Amino acid sequence: QLRLGNLKQADSLLQRAAAAAPGNSQLQTSRLVRQLQLGDAARPLAELQQLASQSEGTYADEALFAARLARGEFAAALAVLDSMAAKVPGQATHHELRGRVQLAQRNFSAARASFERALEVDAGLFGAVASLVALDLLESKPEQAIARVQKVVDRDPQHSVALIALAELKSRHGGEHEESMRLLRAAAAASPLAAEPRVRLIEQALRKRRFKEALSLAQEALAAVPGDARVLEAAGRAQLEAGDVEQAATTFRALAGAMPRSALPYMRLARVYLVQGNREAALTAVRKGLEVDPNSVEAQGNLVDLLVQMNQSGRAQEFVRRQRQMRPSEPSGYSLEAAYLVRTKAADQAVGVLREGVSRTRDPELAGKLFSLLLQLGRDAEAASFGSDWMRQHPSDAAFEYLMSVRDIARGDLRMAEQRLARVLLVFPSNGLALNNMAWVLVKNGKSGAVEYARRAVSVMPDQPDLMDTLAMALAAEGKVAEALTIQRRALDLSEGKPDIRLGLARLALQAGDKAAAREELQKLDQLGNTFREHAEVKALLQKL
Asked: Global pTM?
């Protein structure tokens, strides 16, 4: 888990190891890790540093490295790695972990060198391969990433992790659905008792909206890996999407048994009951989820929504008030109350609640919700003032700056939007929505580079029609109309005929000189009449044909 970068899981496993063997010397390390998790950092870090220096093994060093990296103390993390390498020289994992620190520092060339060095020491270290693939994609080199993983598969055709990665890469970068499914089936055959390839098969079919295929794969997965929580959750979704509602309910009940401390199964059950039109049963499921996990934000929000839908606003209000009383200093209470007020058409009061929450907690998520709500209410000047103040006080809040860029786009200030998105992408280089918006802004500004951003967006968030629409627009702007048409048709299929996507297809057909195809799409849109906001453009284009 440490090599995979899952720092929280690594710490959790350390604690479990200590609990299982209380007389083991590793207990001291776990105790200190727990103290770090509680927020008392200075003393336990110093003790952990001392423990690592006195120990011949690297157990304490690994915990110290995880803590330093999690805190963003990169120089200290690298120093710990030096100590580990001195104790146990020649380990490929040390080079890989060094690369992860350098990646976090955004020193991509150094990170690439470290990962390549790790593979020189141990060619079978797939974590280093995966990190190099991430760098390839970050540099818009998907062909290189695919070739890198293909090389692993060629060397070991039974490498299930590499097969899964190759399937995902090919799916996200223009490969055929059947090829991805073949690779995933090979991964499942290589590891017949593993849940991961089975879940990926189901999710791939769902992503392509092939619900019958997903249902068949779900049945296979349930037979092969019965009782696995991930398989049960994916299978239940497949059953629900395929219309097998009763079986989905049965599967989600089994999921509740597999995840006894999670509200998730009950939220899935609630969705099934809502599909059946049974709000009372959905409400019961949500309440059960809250019994299991009272802190579940999703369950709290669903309870409030259901009570309002069922004309029980008084009970919803009482629940919201109780949550605020129980957690007076936590952002979640303000967020829940604001959502309730918006739901009950009291948005102005919601603004006041969010303002109070931001003032008391300085929580970035609450700040984003306040900014977005002000924009929704048409209070643009107030939103701009709040946004400017927040960014002045929190200049590194890239998530909030992304919201500011969305406002800039809506106002037509594409120059400022481009500047903001550039800063956002420095912090979140794999944010699909930011990549997509940057591509759109560049096209509108008549600048180059839009296709690269759009391809990265589709890679991060595959099979999303709106993102594919932006990619098609960017390709068309560079004169690559044939490829744009292919992508736009796929987007239209995935969107189930969304009018905006269909209009984009008509525009592309006109650009390609295919008037017959354009007329066909425009006539379908014309039947929507004024219910389609772009109806005037549809009429104008038809008149030109």
From this structure: 0.80
